Amino acid sequence: MDGIRYETKGWVAVISLNRPEKHNAMDSEMSAAFANAIVRAQDDRRIRSILLRGEGKSFCSGRDTAALGVRPAGVSDFEHVSKSQSRKFNLIDSQKPVIAALRGHAVGGGFEIALHCDMRVASETARMSLPEIDHGIITDGGGSVITAALAGASRAKYMLMTCEAVGAQQALQWGLVDFVVPDEELDAFALDLATKVAARPPIHVAMAKMLIDGLQGESIRRGIREELIAITALYKTDDRQEAKAARAEKRKPEFKGS
User: How many structural domains does the chain have?
Assistant: First the structure.
């Protein structure tokens, strides 16, 4: 079981994160399967739009904490994060529009997946957060720069610096999501939106996406690369080690600023 379900509905590829018992937290196997599913949809000429959703109570709770910071022998933090970012750029750069349906929690890297999409639909109970600083690291998939581009710099700072979750209506007001619907209507609404987009001329849709993404695309890409440098440095800090120890010992961390 790789944690991903792939199905097609007309011109729409529906990719479901399918590890509900873990709130769709991503381990290495699931991350690889997700990347493969995105490529599969991009390469299928019958597919004109992509819908991302999560099974169970949450969209995605981010990286599985059991796999957080785990590296194959000899792989540096820089190399590991750089490869991860390459997969994220593949989603960001998709010529086929991608829509996210957010139910429950979208946390850290899970929220970043949603931020990589072209449109976001949230259920009324959805909650979004970027808690990386509490783990002694920082966002590495554009959480800082895309949030700032959508919601403004001060709101991005609030989310990153407090690690507090934002509810669906607040996210709608801030521009982080585009629609909020009742929980029971989420899947149907998001599929209908993806189907409407898929019904339009695909080359025209791809051109529209390219033109609009060009407004801030280069600054976002540069920001993501700067996140790579930042997180590589933060992995070596004493506060990162304290965050890991505190989580393992189930206690509140005592950060020292070193």
Answer: 1
Report d(CA 81, CA 232) in Å as an integer: 8
* 132: annotated active-site residue: yes
Name the 3-class secondary structure at 141: coil
- The pTM of the full predicted model, rounded to 2 decimals, is 0.95
Q: Which of 7, 21, 55, 112 is catalytic?
A: 112
42, β-bridge pairs: none
In a domain, 225, yes or no: no
- CATH number of the domain that 21 lies in? 3.90.226.10
- Per-residue pLDDT tens digits of the chain, which is 258 residues long: 589 999 999 999 999 999 999 999 999 899 999 999 999 999 999 999 999 999 999 999 999 877 666 777 788 999 999 999 999 999 999 999 999 999 999 999 999 999 999 999 999 999 999 999 999 999 999 999 999 999 999 999 999 999 999 999 999 999 999 999 999 999 999 999 999 999 999 999 999 999 999 989 899 999 999 999 999 999 999 999 999 999 889 999 999 999
The catalytic position among 132, 184, 185, 249 is 132
